[in-house]
């Protein structure tokens, strides 16, 4: 089964520090936690430990990361849940594995993920995410998103 401590390191390699780019729809962010998604949190002073707790509770648990068998596959689903949203990545995965695309990572979706060839599924997820990124028409961010998407 996948481990949070491994997956969070990969997310934090892409997310970190404080940023308040006016072109970023999430607003102020620190450690990848955005003010838009968490309006009641003091983003500027968010500690790394607090960010990890948010990631575990609000992302890892919702994607059922500890139930996904392949670590690399789980790492990518987790990273994309942070970058493009839990519901969006879950629906992408559900369409690929053939379960109802309801945006909720339930037991049927987990079973289908674990039954799928991990390398093939990872490649299909990357393709779907690339199409999503292209649809956003945000040239300022696309290079970074694609680098992040290519990383294992």
What is the topology?
Blueprint: H1 4-14, E1 18-19, E2 29-30, E3 33-34, H2 48-63, H3 71-84, H4 86-97, H5 107-115, H6 118-136, H7 139-150
Antiparallel strand pairs: 1-2, 2-3
Helix pairs in contact: 1-3, 2-3, 3-4, 3-6, 4-6, 6-7
CATH architecture: Up-down Bundle
Low-confidence stretches: none
How much strand content do the residues show?
under 5%
Distance between the termini: 17 Å
**How confident overall, as mean pLDDT?**
94
Globally, the shape reads: globular
Please give the share of residues in helix. Answer: 55-70%
- According to CATH, the fold-level topology is Chitosanase, subunit A, domain 1
Briefly, what CATH class?
Mainly Alpha
CATH H level, superfamily name = Chitosanase, subunit A, domain 1
Category from helices, strands and their pairing: mainly alpha
């Amino acid at each position: 089964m996948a481990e949070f401590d491994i997956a969070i390191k990969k997310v934090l390699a892409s997310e970190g520090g404080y940023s308040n780019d006016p072109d970023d729809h999430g607003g102020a962010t620190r450690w990848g936690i955005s003010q838009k998604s968490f309006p009641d949190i003091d983003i500027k002073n968010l500690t790394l430990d607090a960010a990890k707790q948010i990631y575990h509770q609000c992302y890892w648990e919702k994607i059922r990361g500890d139930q996904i068998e392949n670590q690399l596959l789980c790492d990518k689903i987790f990273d994309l849940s942070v970058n493009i949203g839990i519901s969006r990545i879950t629906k992408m995965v559900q369409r690929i594995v053939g379960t109802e695309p309801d945006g909720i990572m339930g037991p049927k979706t987990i079973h289908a993920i674990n039954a799928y060839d991990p390398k093939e599924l990872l490649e299909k997820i990357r393709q779907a995410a690339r199409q999503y990124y292209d649809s956003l028409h945000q040239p300022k961010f696309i290079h970074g998103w694609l680098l992040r998407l290519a990383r294992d």
